[in-house]
Amino acid sequence: MATHILGISCFYHDSAACLMRDGEIVAAASEERFTRKKHDPDFPKNAVRHCLREGGIGIEQVDYVGFYDKPFLKFERILETYLTVAPRGLRSFLTALPIWLKEKLFIPLLIQKKLNYKGPILLTEHHESHAASTFFCSPFDEAAILTLDGVGEWATATRGFGRGEEITLTHEINFPHSLGLLYTAFTYYLGFKVNSGEYKVMGLAPFGKPTYYDRIMEHLIDVKPDGSFRLNMKYFGYTYDLKMINRRFENLFEGPPRVPETWLQQREFDIAASIQKVTEEIMLRMARHLHKETGLPNLCLAGGVALNCVANGRVLKETPFKDIFVQPAAGDAGCALGVAKFIWHRYLGHERQRPLSNAFLGPGYSDEEIRAFLDNVKAPYRELSPVSLVREVASLLDEKNVIGWFQGKMEFGPRALGSRSILADARDAEMRNTVNMRIKFREGFRPFAPTVTLDRCSEFFELDCPSPYMLLVAQVREGKRVIPAVTHVDHSARVQTVTEEENPLFYQLLKAYEERTDIPVLINTSFNVRGEPIVQSPAEGYRCFMRTDMDFLVLGNFLLDKKGQPPLDGDINWRKEFELD
């Protein structure tokens, strides 16, 4: 009999579920893709339903359910923090207390009730889940491990190593001292949404100079040579208030937080550059010290801070580690995968198996299902063979058309990797503004990622290793800056490499485009508009296509031209009428 393990992450942000069968990942998905609530923190009932459906089983066939952290330890931290800062913090404490007493303290009972599950429920510590999610998915038999995020139970960062089926975390930094929360404080100060806009700060940084770096290092944080640190809590409000920073922080940076959606000034660019430099410096010190401690050639990274692909790129380039691995859902969503892996290897003692081969673990739709949807909404289309499809799409891209590309199973993690993507010509300098303003409806400073065939990656970028999950930034080579739409102002790019083994059709499209242009590089951005999750179903893909200035849409083997489509019917309930089961 096969052993099924269901991993669950929820109640903070980016809730998700993952199903494993005999140690192999069957399915994994974030709840936001089903509910359409970005970063949805609620119990992932829809993601669980998808995983069980993909596995062809019912909940009664699940042998173990794993939860990604230990609520009593987290509640202990909340209580102790309140007692430390009392009487300040009463408002935030009273806001948090009811949901803890109602749900969060009683996770096993909640899981039993939500899923009608009667089997064993196991809980791991938050950073154990992060560590397991990266090391057990990596191709390394042994590796150093570094996890960094906002906060788990108490830990905000851990370091250690993994060998075979064992993970040993040797050191940790505890709340309230947190690199993730420091970065989030600046995200808030710069006028972006907490736990959502951190990547905007990273994208903003190259427009500025780190003129506030010394001020941050002198007043806000004390960093040791090994990368360990302590925050000066006089400047932060998150231990006692519902806001990240306080008046002292504002005075230090000579003004209140930027009002969201107002014009960005050079001051904001410089502050973003400064906190980005601080983050990179801390990660570099940590990585160098960890290499000195372990002597291991490979590094596994996880936690929300590991989504900072600029810092990841510097760790790869400037530390003694020869290779690094960051799994595609490095934030809390990936902990659903991590707790399942932890149970299989550490609790049940099974040997390591194949590493994670790709991130395509979400729902997929057959051509029959897609055709049924298109016929229902009376959308004109052409059905093409895969060979004809990639040739025609390559031609359309060469002619400066913007394409919605919907294929196969949805990606797990925040990046579109060629399954739910918007594609465009990287050679056209104006394409960045076109896609940002007319299709994504987002800030013009936001950079786009290049997708490139692995065999020609090092020709265009200063990167000599695969980057399949778009989690490494590298410089565009000086002689190859013919791709301005994916070249940031500092000549950097967040690279995704593609092989035929990982994604055959997407690879063939890149090759067909290369045959026409001799350029194996395209813009690849997520198939969504600002403020919405990446599309999950054909209905969502079609609606996004029709609401934006995309020129063509590919759904499976079907090609749709915007010019031939009927107007969107505002009376249609898209979720109810055309969401495919």
Distance between the termini: 28 Å
Q: What name is given to the CATH topology of the largest domain?
A: DHBP synthase
Major beta sheet, specifics? 9 strands, mixed
- Radius of gyration (CA) equals 23 Å
Into which percentage range does the β-strand content fall? 15-25%
Distinct helical segment count? 20
Query: Approximately how much helix is present in the residues?
Result: 25-40%
> Which shape, going by the Cα principal axes?
globular
What structural class should be given to the helix and strand makeup?
Answer: alpha/beta
Number of β-strand runs: 21
Strand order of the largest sheet: 13-21-20-14-15-19-16-18-17
Mean pLDDT: 94
CATH superfamily of the largest domain: Carbamoyltransferase, C-terminal domain
Number of domains: 3
Low-confidence stretches: 574-581
- Name of the CATH class of the largest domain: Alpha Beta
CATH architecture name of the largest domain: Alpha-Beta Complex
